[in-house]
Inverse folding.
């Protein structure tokens, strides 16, 4: 289907189903129950899952295929965000121009950054991209305040020009929409003790994510994708096989920059504000973590990594001491206190500690990331079944 | 006039004159060996031919065109393929993918952003790569990871990848270095077969005299950055200057 082979089509359909049913799947616990804090099926978090999924998918096209580790991809996300918010200020609150322009602007910016950074490889390339990103951050934070809003950032104001939109009603605030459908609008469905939220913005972002995912599969399976893997494998042989590595890596860099811009544009479409901190180097580092945690160079890995990190960031960090005391209430008092103080450093503000430990465990025991973990589990279950790989003559890097 | 004409090529690294004044002419469709003791400048000369180094003086003409100032991928596209001392292949890719890359390079040139076709649906490329794997006797290994192969098979694959581009000149840099005797003989047989079956010029840098004398039609002896003699293998064998270069000062019997 759509020019994909059976295996990839299955993967795409599976992802599409999971994404479509996410409001159910991520809300397994009834409202008000003790486990309800583990529910992730609320719009804000679901939007983050898919948006950071897009960011990580794009990053993986550069890092996973060519092996060039960029430490400055948040800059493209930030530039995309600023482009999107300016579209909303100047043109219309409709998200289509905002998203479209964010991709274009991030693409042009990444072309410039990539052109210079790709003169070097390895650690020098990483440092160059990091330098560019930090410069962009500093510029956005201070020097370019008229364009970026500096410390306070930008949001659509009532009196922005918005040449394509009609005048706002008295007292109304500008809201991001898709031809009138507000991104913030949700349909809530209450069944028994459960509450499921279907958010317009989430579904828009989800559709965009599926398209982005589909395109990344096509790139992985194309001759272009193979050349990118060849760059990672042996650049010397590539040069002596009559192939020019530079435009290949630059194209991969620009494509991943455009994915980052797309993610930035969608962030603005969901939540109409931008601040410079979005470009800070920790944000660039986060997407590296997502790729490695999920599985570098695999198709679905980065999406899993993005989901895992965003889940921990939003769910683990919300658990506090009282909740721990509730959990361990069945224990005798002394032991309860000991257990709580043992677990406490790993939750709430300490969620980074948990993330760090999980990251280390994954890197040491599952170098292929969560995807490798999944494959090992799958292998355990179908050990008796003979391997099916190979007859069609295709080998896939992984999925 | 040969397909490859090297004229007055010199290359200096700091205080070391790696190549003095090299003149070399490789005739079309011959096997031309370049031999010489360690440090004679063989590898430097080879690197000047493929664009890795740029000589300080002189000219290198391939088929009437200068290669100087061109990048390695451009020189390769002109029709010069290089086999490395340690086999350079794409270790993380499968054998089939390894073979497809030069086929794409031959047909589509140095850069083609064809990101939206399935590479295995490109019948022309797949058939060509399969045919080359057959010729190299590697069809069974097509789905193996190239890194897992033995050194001899990696060498075979590398040579196959070079041939897939149908080069006019094949440069081999000590192709049997570090190989077991059996692998060395297999490589010699493979190169003999290539020479017999194809219109191709082969230039080979080699230490192993067994390899050189089994293959070469002309031999150039390089010592201290300058060509000492150029002749047929039979004449080279007993040449006093060659002995001198390899064994040091000849001792006068008197």
């Amino acid at each position: 289907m759509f020019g994909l082979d059976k295996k990839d089509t299955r993967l795409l359909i599976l992802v599409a189903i999971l994404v479509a049913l996410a409001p159910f799947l991520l809300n397994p616990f009834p409202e008000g129950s003790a486990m309800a804090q583990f529910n992730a099926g609320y719009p804000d978090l679901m939007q983050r899952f898919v948006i950071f999924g897009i960011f990580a998918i794009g990053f993986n096209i550069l890092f996973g295929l060519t092996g060039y580790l960029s430490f400055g991809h948040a800059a493209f996300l930030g530039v995309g965000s600023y482009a999107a918010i300016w579209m909303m200020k100047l043109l219309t609150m409709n998200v289509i121009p905002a998203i479209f322009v964010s991709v274009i602007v991030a693409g042009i910016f990444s072309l410039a950054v990539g052109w210079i950074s790709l003169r070097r490889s390895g650690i020098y390339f990483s440092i160059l991209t990091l330098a560019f990103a930090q410069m962009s951050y500093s510029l956005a934070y201070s020097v370019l305040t008229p364009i970026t809003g500096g410390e306070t950032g930008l949001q659509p104001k009532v009196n922005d020009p918005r040449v394509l939109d009609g005048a706002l009603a008295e007292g109304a605030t500008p809201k991001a929409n898709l031809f009138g459908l507000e991104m913030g609008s949700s349909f809530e469905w209450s069944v028994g003790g459960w509450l499921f939220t279907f958010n317009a913005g989430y579904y828009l972002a989800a559709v965009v994510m599926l398209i982005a995912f589909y395109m990344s599969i096509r790139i992985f399976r194309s001759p272009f994708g193979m050349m990118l893997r060849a760059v990672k494998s042996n650049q010397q042989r590539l040069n002596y096989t009559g192939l020019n590595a530079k435009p290949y890596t630059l194209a991969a860099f620009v494509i991943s920059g455009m994915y980052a811009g797309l993610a930035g544009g969608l962030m603005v479409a969901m939540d109409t504000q931008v601040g410079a901190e979005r470009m800070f180097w920790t944000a660039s580092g986060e997407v590296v973590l997502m790729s490695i945690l999920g599985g570098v160079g695999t198709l679905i890995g980065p999406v899993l990594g993005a989901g895992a990190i965003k889940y921990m960031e939003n769910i683990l960090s919300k658990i506090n001491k009282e909740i721990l005391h509730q959990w361990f209430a069945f224990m005798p008092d002394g032991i309860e206190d000991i257990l709580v103080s043992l677990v406490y450093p790993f939750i709430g503000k300490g969620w980074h500690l948990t993330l760090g430990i999980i990251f280390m465990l994954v890197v040491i025991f599952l170098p292929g990331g969560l995807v490798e973990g999944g494959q090992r589990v799958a292998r355990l279950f179908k050990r008796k079944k003979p391997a099916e790989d190979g007859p069609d003559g295709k080998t896939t890097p992984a999925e | 006039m040969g397909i490859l004409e090297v004229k007055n090529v010199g290359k200096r690294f700091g205080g070391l004159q790696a190549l003095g004044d090299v003149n070399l002419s490789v005739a079309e469709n011959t096997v031309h060996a370049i031999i010489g003791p360690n440090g004679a400048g063989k590898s430097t000369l080879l690197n000047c031919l493929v664009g890795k180094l740029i000589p300080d003086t002189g000219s290198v003409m391939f088929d009437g065109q200068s290669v100087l100032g061109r990048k390695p991928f451009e020189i390769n596209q002109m029709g010069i393929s290089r086999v490395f001392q340690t086999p350079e292949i794409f270790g993380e890719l499968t054998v089939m993918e390894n073979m497809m890359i030069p086929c794409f390079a031959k047909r589509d040139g140095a850069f083609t952003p064809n990101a939206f076709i399935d590479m295995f649906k490109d019948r022309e490329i797949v058939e060509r790569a399969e045919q080359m794997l057959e010729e190299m006797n590697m069809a069974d290994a097509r789905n193996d990871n190239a890194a897992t192969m033995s050194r001899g098979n990696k060498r075979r694959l590398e040579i196959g990848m070079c041939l897939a581009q149908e080069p006019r000149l094949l440069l081999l840099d000590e192709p049997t270095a570090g190989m077991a005797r059996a692998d060395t003989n297999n490589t010699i047989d493979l190169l003999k077969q290539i020479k017999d079956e194809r219109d191709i010029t082969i230039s080979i840098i080699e230490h192993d005299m067994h390899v050189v004398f089994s293959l070469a039609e002309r031999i150039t002896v390089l010592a201290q950055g300058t060509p000492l003699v150029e002749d047929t293998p039979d004449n080279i064998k007993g040449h006093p200057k060659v002995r001198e270069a390899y064994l040091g000062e000849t001792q006068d019997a008197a």
